[in-house]
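Q: Please design a sequence for this.
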């Protein structure tokens, strides 16, 4: 994942209201009006949060009649997940090396001082 995209994604997720919107959309599509009611914020405030999430590729809006429901965009989260999985693999490798070192140290007998 390109770092600019990663930075934009994590910046979008840094805000608790936007994380709340993501959590709500994980349950299914929602209109701006439904999100306004859910979060007790003004329509312009929710719209601003939605624009940030859209720009990060985490959500999208479609058109259904007069409404524009928001929904999650799985591809935005896949990139973050791949990045986190890479970090997890690095950590697991480092922990395995540490475990091996600790086992070696256990086996070695300490030298007695005279």
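A: Design:
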């Amino acid at each position: 994942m390109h770092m600019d995209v990663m930075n934009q994604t994590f910046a979008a997720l840094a805000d608790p209201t936007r994380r709340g919107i993501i959590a709500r959309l994980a349950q299914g599509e929602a209109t701006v009006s439904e999100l306004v009611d859910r979060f007790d914020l003004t329509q312009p405030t929710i719209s601003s949060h939605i624009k940030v999430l859209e720009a990060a590729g985490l959500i999208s809006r479609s058109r259904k009649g007069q409404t524009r429901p928001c929904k999650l965009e799985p591809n935005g989260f896949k990139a973050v997940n791949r990045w986190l999985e890479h970090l997890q693999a690095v950590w697991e490798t480092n922990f395995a090396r540490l475990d091996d070192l600790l086992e070696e140290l256990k086996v070695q007998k300490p030298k007695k001082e005279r």
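Q: Thanks. Anything notable?
A: The chain has one domain: 3-107. The radius of gyration is 23 Å.
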